[in-house]
Amino acid sequence: MSVVTDIAAAICLLLGAFFSFSAGVGVVRFDNLLARLHVVAKPQVLGMLLLLTGVALRLQDRGSVTMLVLVAVFQLMTSPVAAHMVGSAGLRTGKVDPELLKADDGGTRGPDAGR
What we know:
mainly alpha
């Protein structure tokens, strides 16, 4: 069983490193606030969760795994709030291009759009 958990831990660690690295590259390469916000909020969190899972599989200690689960829960609770706050601040300060906010559904934005 140790070989299987070591392989699963290695896969989780490699995938987590890939997602975290791609999030870092995306922050440098993307040009607008919303794209950078997406790459910080989505792949970075997935990469971190995969890294925590890999470390938990490797350690298999009750105290360490409990701490890793608390870190994961805290990250899942704070990342959406931080992304929302940064997006709202960017919208208020004019850092977001208004063209990016237009709906792509034929112009309907809700039940009262045609009235």
